[in-house]
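I need you to check the entry underneath: sequence plus fold tokens. Let me know what the token row says about the fold.

>
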Amino acid sequence: MKQRTVSSYIKLTLASLLVLISCCLCTWRLMKIQVVESETYIQKQTYVQTYKQDINATRGEIRDSAGNPIVENKVGYNIIIQPDTFPEDNKEGNRVLLTLTSILKENNVTWNTSLPISQTQPYTFTNDDTAVAKLKENLNLNVYATAENCIDALKETYGIDDSYTEQEQFLLAALRYEMQLRGFSLSNRFTLAEDVSIQVVTELKERGVTMPGMDIVEEAIRSVTQADVIPHEIGTVGPIYAEEYEDLKAKGYDLDDIVGKSGIERALDLTLRGTDGIKEIRVENGEVISAEMTTPVVAGNTIQLTVNSDFQRELQNILESFIDNFDYLRDFKTEENGLGEVSCGAIVVLDAKDGGVLGMATAPTYDLNTYKTDYEAIVNAENAPLVNRATDGLYRPGSTFKTITATAGLNEGIINGASTYHCAKTYLFKDHTYNCTGTHGDISVTRALQVSCNIFFYQLSEKLTIDRISDYASRFGLGQPTGLETGDASGYLSNQETFANLGIDWTVGQVLQSSIGQGEWAVTPLQMANVACTIANNGTRYKPHLVDSIWDYHYTHCIEDIQPVIAEQIQPKDDMVFQYVEEGMIAASHNGFPDRYSLSNLGFDVAVKTGTPQAGGGRVQDSFFIGYAPANDPEIAFAGVIEGGEYSKYMIRSIIQAYEKIVKEDEAVSVGYFGTTTATSQITDANSSTGTTTYTEAVTTAGENPHA
């Protein structure tokens, strides 16, 4: 075995030392990189993140049946806060917000905030319990938190210290909370103010460099051009609130979207809203390096309604003129009739061919532009102008319901055109005496409808029973929503179930009262207009609708023409069922109308039925009418009610003439619709009737049972 020399040991030792030194150097270098210089290397790393921001689509317009805009869009300027350039530092962000709002306030520009707390100390909650609960939840506070606790939490979160005045503190807290509610982030910008003037735009642009994050965008602004046309049914739009977002996000909505809040704006929101575009923002190490549109914006569709704006205004004028001119009745009323002031009512006119709403007036009312500026005044106004009495006012139908009872009796074979019941003015039933408005002797169904004989229908109801009366009322659409796009009240039927729900004892005598539209019926004018429309169509009940067609945004291409929907088919047992009812209604149109309100000289027959049902709410009675015209080929079906009044039927002539003049004008320039050229000239005369002479004429010329 070869022995190692001294030199080989020296070499081995040196090699080992070199290896050891190298290991130490590597270890030291690694420690330096990982511990001492870690921040330097972290800073050298590149972090790239991508955010997507939705860009709102232009909302579709709403037009009337003639194509005239009711709600459209105009180009306006909105003030927004861009999340990618707004300062992350709370102090700097607060400065920007205070500077911006100061400029807006100087120019009388307002903005919305949702903080449900009083603006001055001692801070208290508003009466909106839902908003207060949501505030505490958003701030992660317990249910016992006070308004002061909420303000303190916002101040702490957003660096709002005592260097700000009390007013500035509240303003910043409110703005920051509003931004939080709107989901302000890199994916969601915040709109502070809408539709500002060019003067404000100019001033903001001049000072824009001092307000990072503030931007001015040119966008489509919702503009109501005909604010007085069916405002309840057009509705409003507004921002999405947190409590709504849970339901809407599944449908593709974002927190910064504008959404329909009521009316058509809400019912057809998905049709109107269009498709938002997408803006992609790339952020590298906290700095925005690019922002570009990756998905284009698609504007919403335009909706054309069945309503004619001019006809709607005339209906409103007819209704309000009647109400305004009703005061003369006070000079003639007696303690027995107990009539007081009249201030409320409604009129509905449907297209008898398909159930389209041609006009719908309600009083009192409002316009949409006033709604925006004087909301509190409208909410607190007398007689609740926010209630659309045409669709949501609930009334007893009175004698107008006799058309349904007559249909039921004829269709069930209990009576025919020749059947008679005897009316001796009083009728004894189960030890109780019921009265009629006259003594009619042996009377048939057609005559009973004409003179509104109660006793005829009392006797018919005994054989019909309440079950069949309720069944036919349901077939005519009572006790249920009509299916109108914007929704309406369902009301209820006058039967044992309703009495039980109301906590009222049902007696057998209620069958008689229910058969003449008393009892506990609750119907809307829209429902009763549809009853008339159903009779006009021999038992075919259409679903009333407001939407005529759907168009592209620019109103150049029709996407969908809305087809009528049959909701019910009352199959008559023979051709005479509805014929007898119609003959009775035509006869009623010649009964009790003074000359200036006459329906006998229009050149065509009109089918009507009137009633003066007992009323609640401190009123003695209401005045109701239903009908259609022309009777031989119905074009319109209508209904109207005057709360606490009388003689609402005097509006019928004006309604028909207004339709003839306005809606059918293009089709009948030289020859009046319905075959008359003189009717339209009488609108002014009919609408301008005032004073004691008119009332005296109405009383002295009224026919048999003018109150029926």
